Structures are given as structure tokens and as C-alpha cells.
Amino acid sequence: MVPVLLIGIPLLAGLIGFSLKNAAAKSWALFASLLVLGVSLTGICLPKNSKQLLFSTEWMGTLGSRFAVSLDGTGQILCLLTALAFPVIFISTWKEEYKKANNFFSLMLLSQTGLLGVFLAGDALLFYFFWELALIPVYFLASQWGGEKRIAATFKFFIYTFLGSLMMLIGILYIYFHTRDHSFALSAFYQAHMQIPAETQSWLFWLIFLAFAVKMPIFPFHTWQPDTYEQSPSAVTMVLSGVMVKMGVFGVLRWLAPVLPMGTYMWGDTVSALCIIGMIYASLIAMRQDDLKRLVAYSSIAHMGLMCLAIFATTEAGIQGVMIQMFNHGINIIGLWIVVYLIEKQFKTRKISELGGIAAKAPVLTTMLVIITLANIALPLTNAFIGEFLMFSGVYSSKATSYNVVFTVCAAVTIILSAVYMLNMVQRVFYGPVNGRTENAVDIRTNEKMVLGFLVILIIVIGVYPEPLFRLTQGAVDSLLAKMYVKP
Amino acid sequence: MNSIITSAVLGVIMMFSGIFLKKNSSIVTLAIAGIIVLLGMAALDMSGYHFFPVDTHNMLYFDVFGLLFNCVAFACTLAYFLLNGRDIAAIGNNPGEYFALIFFVLCGLSIASSFNSLLMLFIGIEIISIPLYILTGSDKRNLKSNEASLKYFLMGAFSTGLMLLGIAFLYGAGDKGSFFLDDLGIGRVAGTPMMMTGLILLMCSMAFKVSAAPFHFWTPDVYDGAPTVVTSFMATIVKAGVFIAFVRLFIDAFGDMKAAWQIFIAIITATTLFIGNITAVFQQSVKRMLAYSSIAQVGFMLFALLTLNTLAKEGIILYTAVYSLSTIGLFAILVKMKDFSFDGFNGLARQYPIVAFTATIFLLSLAGIPLTGGFMAKYYMIAAVMNTGSFLWLVIFALLCATVSVYYYFRVIQAMYFKDGVAQQLNLTPGFNGMLILLAAIVIILGIFPEWLIGRLYIIYL
Amino acid sequence: MLTAFYMFRLYATTFLGNFRGTEKQSGHLHESPPAITIPLIILAILAVIAGFVGIPEVFAKNSNALEHFLHPVFAGGSEGSESIPASTEWMLMGVSTVLALAMVLYALSRFSKKPELAEPTGFGKWMRDKFYVDEIYDALIVRPINALADFFDSIVEKRMIDGLVNGTGRLVQYGSRQLRYLQSGQVGAYVLLMVVGIVILFVVQLFLRK
């Protein structure tokens, strides 16, 4: 029941939202997203084997596809993130005036449906459906309410992602025809690799991985990301960066690594090398960015690279770290985007060179930002430290690759670089001399304080006591590692 | 048999209606009544009520596949009449004749979907083509229409010649010299040179009718020159019908010797996909873009011909239904517009939100986005190929082309929603929006529950 | 030794000798308020006492309170330790105290009467400017990394990778522009192309397949 509610509530709410008046749409969207949050929290409190966490019904019998949705450890944590992210986004952008707000909020709710569906799907064709469905509302949102060059940027984003998805469809179909009883079910897919020889797994891996690589994004498939983030409206960027990129990581965790363990093992080094290159590359570029949005965008690429690296390390610490970090990164990056949004709203510019000395007039904003920044750098006491530490130890102790030390060292360099650009940004934007633009800075309002404060509390609490999240995902981690095991 | 005779009779009725009925609207109403009767007859035919027992000496064989297709085709024609009826009558001075010709085409479709003999195939194809030559040129005052009609006729005659030569070769190549499909290739694994020659010639002429490359060159000019309502009919229902004939021919006659001719179909498919999609990218007129898009869609449909398995048969019915509905919807909107260029769609969403929304659904369906019928149709095609285990390169190539197609379909969406402009005035009748919404709903329902249509292939009526 | 030198240089230049500031500044000279001086006095007394806490064995047996206090911490390491003979202890104490006192006297004598105010040259300059470590660091690491980052941003990102992606789009557009010329509008050309297609198929069938 829980998964059906999780998908059904935003879907219905979104469809109803189209017919509401603009003013009511905002409250309606917030209400619906809070409802989803409630359902998600309930789902977490239920015991692991509860019947309520599964739902399966006939859909396309002759095709071997069922409408099967289920909540397991990986799905729980990401559903929680999605359920948490949307109310946060709505509250933090409450004062924003959108033209045709009812369409805007309905499309946001529909995109939440698609995202939740991806995390819940237990059937490959259903997974593909939701993968594309998450894309369409976001495309319309970014194209209609975005910046000046939005049409070209979002179109590139759409075609790039669509191409990846189509290749993934071929891969899914190939595996489908090699399952014992021609079914799309997750369990059938987990058995299928025994019928597929290693050479085939090799190119099959890339067909499916392409979709996820574009989504995360991994170097060199990342060029759509900075432009799209820059041109989208802030709320959409928060959805894109906070939740959508996790679709890519989730896809690898659930639909690629356990389904094609041989392929994952064979290409692990190559993918890890690409991740490392991407991390260092993106961090370096972030150092030279003047536009706040592009800086955060490149920072996001670096963080996702680390997560992908940790998956391919195939160790318990690494994968546990990835699970936690997906949640943490979501929170941290949404916090960062909220701050960027607030700065842009007030000072009408995103350029670091045009800002300065905001701390003098806006101490609360500065404090929140500094904590979020430190979380981004993965300072101990923040949530990201837990995730990154686990991932680093996972990569270092990895038996799946012979370059684990090299990877760890390079990844550590990225942390230093991230400290450089983040602290540089903080120093130049918030400290330093006040200029004409920032003279009349006003501190943030109550709703924004509430939201940022909530995120900061989460950051510190999880940083100090991550145990509940570990318990949530432990089962999934263990079963995943068991499936990924390949005799060397 | 019901449909053949009923449609012919209806055609004659429509011819004479022009004398007795003076107002266009009554003619349209009569036509709509006629197509409903025809649809009813086809449905009854599927359920087993045959009203006209005619002994065709096994030349026509009515199986569920053909009869279901008839129902689909007539249902699409009903939608077509409901959307465009007034515009069909407004083409020129002879409204009754236009509908009569359409009904004759439907008669040819019914023959072509149920043939068991090469002679019947020929007759069916010709009955389809000749009224279309006339319909293409029916806008007598427009030079482009005349030119299109003549081009179509000339090239059609050429392809008919090819078809007859192919049939002659096949007649000579068979063991006992017969036109029946059963006697041609059943049980053979490879073909004799004479049989292969006949097969290739027949394949080329059918490819011409279906507008597969490199025999597609008539399509952009003819579709562009014909009156838009006629293009709508040609690009959807006629193309679907001829395609079903194509599939039927190869399943029944040459199904066992697949290895002999699959490579040709593969070459034709790849060429069609490439030319159709790439050329469509640069078009400046939406009407011409849709013409090339129909070529590209045929490229996908050819997968069914490539594989000829169960998935293919189910898929082709779904594909024709979804493709026809989407394209009819799009053309119906185009008919109401004066400016066919992409910029002519600017700002349409603000003025006519329902039209824009349904157009978006149709475009998403053509592009193959999940939740729309177009995705399920493409899925069946791809699944059919993957089931055979070979031609993987073709699948990858096809999906690359599908990505290219997203570009030109989305240009229309972008113009409607994201670009500012003053939309042109469309004179919409009140039922127009409702009809569009119904079509869009069917497209989405077929996208989520394709079994609803495909399941009918397997319902056995006593 | 070095500590003695610089500490007493500091003391001598700041507190001894003549006042080197302006008239106005001299008016500000005063003893610090008790809030500062009392803690300083207490700390000074404690500093002296602390010196007696760790007093070596030679002066009084078993009076090194610190050693016993910290004994558990080094439990593992102290098993093999021997006590140092008394003469070594005397020598160590003597030498270090003498050297320190010598430096103290040297510093006092050098700096109390004529404080050096000129810019240090040569070695002194090198020491003052932190051995130029920061500058070396800047040149070796910071600047090249910035340059590398700029290179990545402008060349690799914009021209190579994004160029590839955008280039694909442009290639498709270009292909379309050229391909549409096939559609010439001339029926003869169309039929010719059709015949060429048929001939190719026949060639494949009759000659290339055996």
C-alpha cells in the first residue's frame, strides 16, 4: 500500500493542480508534498518484511511485465530524500511568483511522481516508464520558466538523456529475453546473468550504463549539466540536483551492478578512472567559475563522481557510504541551492565578482551557508563526512581493483580542491568589502530561516548520529554485495 | 466479406448523394453514418456474422488479423471524418465524390488485408491507388495539387508495372504455376533465382506504395501538394492498409524462407530510417515535416516485416492504430491553420490550450515517449527484433534515428509552449476540441494498456 | 639557544633603551590595569614552580613528580630504560644553562643600546620573509593549478567535449541540409533512383550471395 500511496498522491495532486487557481496551487502542492512525506516516514517505521511495502498487479501479461512496486532499503532512503526535498523546496521558494503557477506546481508534483516511481519500481519495464516520466515534466518546467537560453540548454538535456535511456531499453530487452521465464521482474533480472556470457555482459554493461552515466553525470557525459542547471528556475535546479541525479546512482545500485556483475567487474577500473578524472576535472573548473550556479553545478559533478567510484569498489563500507551519501548530498546540495537562490533574489546577480560582504548585514544567512559549505567539504561533524569517510575506506580496501590506492589518493585531492573553491566562494561573497550591490542587504525571512535551519540541524544530527540511516540500508547493502560477487 | 461489399455500396451511395443532397453538411452526416455502418459491419464480421456468403474460391481469406485491422482502419476513418468532415467537403465542388472515393479506397483496403492470392493483392492495391490519384488532384485550382497527382500517377504506374512483373515471375517460379500464396514459398528454405527475382520486384513495388526508401521520393511531393485533408488520409490509413498487405504477403507466402530476403528488408529499413529522419530535421514546413516523419515511422514498422514473429504481428496492429490516430490528430490541427511553418505554431498554447495539449500528446506519441501508445508500438517492434537475436546493429541505429526524430517533433512543442507569438486564428467547430481530447485519451490508454487492442487478436468468437 | 636569543631580543628592543615612538604615543604609556598584570604575575610564579616539578634526580631523589605521574602512559616503553649516570645529568644541565645565559647576555648587550631598525639584508631578509615558502608554494602549486583549471574550462570543456556534443547536432543539421537536395522534384530523377535501388538489390542477390 505504501508504495502505491507514494506514487498515487503526487500523481493525483498534480493532475488536480492543473485546474486550480494560481494562489491555491502553491498551498495545494505544499500540502500534497507534506502528505507524501508523512507516508514515506510511515513506510520507514514499518518492519522490513511488512506486506504493506509491496504491491504487485497484472499489467501487461503477454509482455511479462507487472505493475510491481516495492520499498527496500535503497528505495526507502531515496524516497525519504524525495519526500523531504519537495516540501523544503516549496517552502524555500514560497515567495517566488510564477506565471501560470498552477501548471508549475502540478508539473513539480508530476515530476515527484516519476522520481518516486523510479525508486520504487520492481519491474524493469515499469522502471523504464518512470525513468522517462520523471524527465518530461522537468523538461517542460525548465523550458517554460527558465532563463534566457533555456530552450537550447534543456533541449540538449532532453536529447542526451533520451539517447541514454533508449540504449538502456535495448539492454533491458536483451536481458529480458534471457530470463528464464521471459519476465521483467527484478528477481528474474537478478537471475538472468547466469545465462549471459561475460563477453556479452561487457557491451551490455555499457548500453545500460550509458543512461546512468548521462544522468549522474560522469565525465565525459556531463556537458549538459552546467548549462541546464544554470538556465533552469531555482526550484527545478533543486529537484534536478538534489534528487534526479540520484536516479543514476540508484540505477547502478539496483539495476546494473547486481544484474551484470561480470560486466561491472570487467569495466570497474575504466569507470573508476573516468570518475576520478571527472572529479578532479570538475573541481578544477569549479575553482574558476564566477557564476554561483555553475560553481555548485561543477561541485555536484565532483561529488557524484565519488559516489560512482565507491560503488565500483564493491566493498561494504563503500556501498554503505554511497547509500548514506546519496541522502546527505541531496540535503547539502539543496541547502546550497537555496542559498544561491536567496542571493540571486536579493542582489539580482549570481556573479561572485559582483558580490561581497554580505555577512555584515545578513548574519543568519551567512551562518547557515557556512555550515552547509563545511558539509559540502565533508568536514567532520557534518553528515557528508560520514558518507565520504565510508566511501574512502571502501575504495581503499577494495579488492575489485588493483589501483585502489591511486584512486583513494586522487579522490582525496578532490576534497582539498573542494575546500578551495567553496571557502573561496564564501570568503568573496560573504566576507570581504561591501560594494554597491550588497550595501542594503537584508537578512533572510522566517520561512527561509526555518528551512535552512532544518537542513542544518539534519546535517549536524546525521553527522553525529548516523546509526538510524545505517540500519535502514544495511539489509540492502548486504544483499547487493552478495549479488555483485564475482569469483576473480 | 462484409466490409468489401458494404464499402463498395456506400461508395456508390455517396456518389449519388451529390445529386440529391444540396448542402455539404448533409453529405458529411451521410458519410459519417456510412462509416459507422461500415465499422459495425466489420465488427460483426470479426464476431462471426457474415452477411454476404460469397465463395471466393480461396482467393480471399478472412482471418482475425485482417479483420481486426479492418476495424482499426474504419475506426480511424470515423475519427478522421468526425474531425475533418467539413474540410473534406470543402476541397472543391464535388463533395459527394470525395467521400465516394474514400469509401472505394476503404474497399480496396478490405481486399488488401484479406487476400490469399496474388491477383487479389494486385486488385486490392490498385483499388486503393486509383482513387487516391484522383483525390490528390482534387483541388483543381491549385497547381501543386495537379502536379502532385500527376507525379503520383506516373510513379504509381511504374510501380504497378513492377508488381505485375514480379507476380508473373512468381507465377512461373512456383511448382504448379498458381497465384495462391500458399503455393509460393511454403516449405521452402531458399528460393530459386526466378522466385527471388519475383520476390524482389514485388518487394520493391510494395515498398513504393508504403514509401520506404529508396522508393519514397514521391511521398514528400505528393503529400505536400495534395490538399491537407487528403494527405491526412493518405499518410495514415492508406499507408497502414498497404503495410498490412505487405506483412500479410510475406508471412503467408515467404514466411519460411526468411533468411533469403531478410537482408533486403534490413537494407531498406536502414535507408528509410536514415533518409526519413535526417531529411525531416531541416524542414521548415510542418506539413512537409510530417510527410518525412511518416517515412521515418514506416522505417520502424518495417521491423515487423523483418521479423514476422508473434510480437511483430501484435505490434504492427498497435503501431498502425497509434500512428494513424496521432497523425490524424496532428493533420486535423494543421488543416485549420493557414501558415504551415514552425513559427506559425508560436504561442498556440496560450490561445488554444486544448489544441496545444493534445498536439503535444500526439507528438510525444510519434516520438516514442513512454506513457503514450507510440512508445508501446516502438517497444513491440524493438522487442520483436531482439527476440530473434540478430540485427542488433539495426536496433541501435533505429534508436539513434529515434533520438533525431525527437528533435523535429519537439520543435513544434517548443514553438507552441515556449516561444512567444501571436497565434493564428483557427476556426474551430465546437466538437473539434472534444474529438481531439478523445483521440489523445485513446493514445494514452493504448500506451498504458495496449493489451486492450492486441488482446482482440486472440479472442475467438464462435 | 635560538629561543633565548629571540626572546631577549624582543625584551630588549621593546622594554629597554630609549623610547622610539612619537610624542603622542608616549602619552599613552602606562602600566597595564590589574586585570592584565595580576594574571601575568600569577603565571610567572607558576612558571617558576613548574620548573621545580620535574626536577632531575641529582638534586633530590624521587622528586620528579611528573615522571611518576606520567608513568602509566609510558608503561610499555619504560621497561628497558636505564637511569642516566649522575655526571651526565650534571653535564647536560650545566651546558644548556651556560649556553642559554650566554645568548641572553649577548642579546641584551646587542639590542638594548642600539636597536637595529634597518631592513635586514641577505640572510636576515630571507628569514624575515618566511624563507619565501609561501611564494614558492604559490608559484609551484597555486598558479599552475589555476592555469590548469582555466585550460580545462575554456579549452577542454567548451571546445572539446561540448564541441563534440554540439558538433553532433550541427552535423545532423548539415546532413539534413544536403540530403534534402535528393528530393529534386523531378520525376525522372526519382524513378532513376528507384531503379538504382532495385539494381543494387539484384546485384546483392545475384552476385554477392552464394
Task: Give a description of the structure.
The complex is a heterotrimer of chains A (488), B (462) and C (210). Helix content of chain A is 74%, strand content 3%. With 488 residues, chain A is mostly helical. In chain A, strands 1-2 form a two-stranded antiparallel sheet. In chain A, α1 (2-17) packs antiparallel against α4, α8 packs antiparallel against α10 (234-256) and α13 runs antiparallel to α14 (363-377). The longest helix of chain A is centred in the last third of the chain and has 32 residues, at 316-347. Chain C has 210 residues and is mainly α. Helices cover 69% and strands 0% of the residues of chain C. Chain C has helices spanning 2-15, 23-28, 34-53, 65-69, 86-112, 123-128, 133-179, 187-206. Chain C is elongated. The N and C termini of chain C lie far apart (98 Å). Chains in contact: A-B, A-C, B-C. Chains A and B meet through α5 and α6 of A and α16 and α17 of B.
Feature tags:
heterotrimer; A: mainly alpha; two-stranded antiparallel ribbon; 74% helix; B: 462 residues; mainly alpha
